[in-house]
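Bench notes, afternoon.
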Amino acid sequence: MKLPSSFVLTAFLPATAARLTAASANFNDQAAAVEKITGSAPQIMHEEQSEPEFDDTPSYDIFDVQSSLDAHRNIWWQTVGDGNNYDMKFERVCFCPDNYRGPFELAVRGGAVTTATYTDDTAVDSEMLGMLLSVEGVMDEIQKGLDRKYVELKVKYNNMGYPDEFYSDSSRMIADDEMTYKISDVVLVDE
């Protein structure tokens, strides 16, 4: 025989209420007994929850990364010369929109990104063009990470002096702020 749900609920609620009332009365009796013996009412202790501690101390030797950046910047300037004209592929790996990641094919003239396409030859709009980084721009991002003492900076350089890959994490307390820049296929251009 199946009982209607209203019967089960009606039968269950008074029994539960009675148990809760008895438990409450029992607690009050015990609290009164403790107060009588000790002279003070018992305190309900709550374990304090502390925030997890994050150590935002850089995980690298700042001096070593700075020295390496300075040395590779000099190699790059010697490689690229006064014209500072080259073509390159550029890509970001990040928690960001696909159109921001690339990969892109860039033309850099006089150190500035002048034209860009996605690697499928789709044009890059002017707003996105302003957000793309030259070799010098990526080196400036490395310097910014050093100056702001990002918690992680990892750089791998090419023998021409430019960073093949640069990973940064500004803070362990911020999710999804990690960024990786990748540069490849740098070709110097005479113009």
